[in-house]
Amino acid sequence: AQSVTQLGSHVSVSEGALVLLRCNYSSSVPPYLFWYVQYPNQGLQLLLKYTTGATLVKGINGFEAEFKKSETSFHLTKPSAHMSDAAEYFCAVRDDSNYQLIWGAGTKLIIKP
Amino acid sequence: NAGVTQTPKFQVLKTGQSMTLQCAQDMNHNSMYWYRQDPGMGLRLIYYSASEGTTDKGEVPNGYNVSRLNKREFSLRLESAAPSQTSVYFCASSASLGTNEKLFFGSGTQLSVL
Question: Which positions of chain A have pLDDT values less than 50?
Answer without folding.
Answer: none
